Amino acid sequence: MLADLLALAWTALWVGAGHLVERLFTRLDVIATGVIGAGRTFDGWIQTFQSAVPPGVPYLSDFLRQTANALKLHSGDPLIASGEAGYQAIHMVGLLLGVLTAAVPIAFLALVYLPRRLRLISDMRGVHLTIRRALERPELSPQMLEILAGRAIYTLPYQDLLRYSRNPAEDWYARRFERLAQAEMARHGLSVERYFRPPA
Questions:
Q1: What is the overall mean pLDDT for the chain?
Q2: Considering the entire predicted model, what is its pTM?
């Protein structure tokens, strides 16, 4: 449970970090907003200029209108278009950076922790089912003790076995399975000492 809680905390931490990175990066959109504002300001000036062009003056009126249209085409409108494209790009890159910031550590956790956790869950389900069936009897059968002891011998670290048996190999070959079986059951959090005979 502690390992699961730590895994959840790790995931939540990196999700928060990814969100923070996205927020920090998208603050750069003020640059794009400024460019858009500058383009609109230019367009406003050009519209004011167009409205001030005197109508009906031969050559002059057409020349001033064409000049205003050219200014709008080459200054205001391109600035607005560039600013909008930059705004979208900043938010897209910010989202991508946020996702990558969170995804890499979470993927590392998933690759390292989840397979072992899923194997342990599957293993524990099998052991619990077997133990539950065995505990319907007043004591563990010799066959069940041998199965549990065999699992302990082949799967538990030797240091863990030494906490239950001074010589695990000797106990196994002498068919003294109780201590080894207790080690296997303890690994899965099972406490069923009442089904073992008290030590002499």
A1: 79
A2: 0.52
